[in-house]
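Posting this for the archive.
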Amino acid sequence: MSARFAITKFRTGYDLNEVDDFLDTVVRQLREEPHVDAIVNTISAATFRQTKWRDGYTIEQVDGFLAELAGTLRARQDPDPGYSI
């Protein structure tokens, strides 16, 4: 899964460095820890400083990506409820 976010200019957006640093942390956690619940909780609790006069990432795109990522991680962790042995 990869993401590229549109850059805002003179509109409210998320601080570029904070989002980039957060995503680097999530990638590191995914590589090091198999505890998906903790990673999903980290993603769900993420907040970023908003910018207006400096470049920022489009809020809706970042939020959408994080929601999709958390959903994908949950789906991979949860066994299929329709599956039985």
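The CA atoms of residues 13 and 65 lie 15 Å apart. The helical segments are 16-32, 36-44, 59-77.
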